[in-house]
């Protein structure tokens, strides 16, 4: 297998994950959103054109797979995870379903941590509307793009919110921490290395 130097430099800069320093800086940036302990506007005054990353869409039928492999359909509000460019070019869109605080087994202290986005895999938008719901990254899945287009056209679905720039950056911070935090060192050491042959 032959790799050119530019590709190796690129991969080295990304993998195995972001450096602990970058991760801590991202966490620090995330904490700045809560410096005053107050809510702030996360949503655009008007919806963006089309379907975009970070959009919150209501009335989506989401397959829920049980431990035995059975499939049930739940009507959920969902967060669009796919990059906006990918939405234009791909046939499927990545989504994460929202859950209300009341249907989740969180203690009062955990709810406070959830609202402060302390959980890696859960996304809460501390908008001034103070909606008590969070998106769960552990349930991310893909749904056909045409399903969304048809639902919005037929008014069976509704884009509830599009993110403003602050809300969008907050989402990017959470996705970065969740998907690119450093892997366990022991697991890293167990991964096999490959020899690179430079294409000169």
Arithmetic mean pLDDT: 82
Main β sheet profile: 7 strands, antiparallel
Shape: globular
What class would the helix/strand composition place it in? alpha+beta
The radius of gyration computed from the alpha-carbon positions, rounded to a whole number of angstroms, is: 19 Å
Q: Please provide the ordered H/E string of secondary-structure elements.
A: EHHEEHEHEEEHEHHE
Low-confidence stretches: none
What fraction, in percent, of the residue positions are helical?
Answer: 25-40%
Total number of β-strand segments? 9
Strand content: 15-25%
Note the gap between the termini.
Answer: 13 Å
Number of helices: 7
Short description:
The chain is built from seven helices and nine strands. The chain is α+β, with helices and mostly antiparallel strands and 200 residues long.
What does this structure look like?
- The protein is of the alpha+beta class and 200 residues long.
- Helices cover 34% and strands 24% of the residues.
- It contains seven helices and nine strands, in the order βααββαβαβββαβααβ.
- The protein has helices at 5-14, 20-32, 84-89, 108-115, 145-153, 165-180, 185-190; strands at 2-3, 56-65, 71-80, 92-100, 122-123, 133-136, 141-144, 158-161, 197-198.
- A hairpin with a 5-residue loop joins strand 2 and strand 3 (71-80).
- The radius of gyration is 19 Å and the shape is globular.
- The mean pLDDT is 82.
Characteristic terms for this protein:
200 residues; alpha+beta; seven-stranded antiparallel β-sheet; two-stranded parallel ribbon; 9 strands; 24% strand; globular
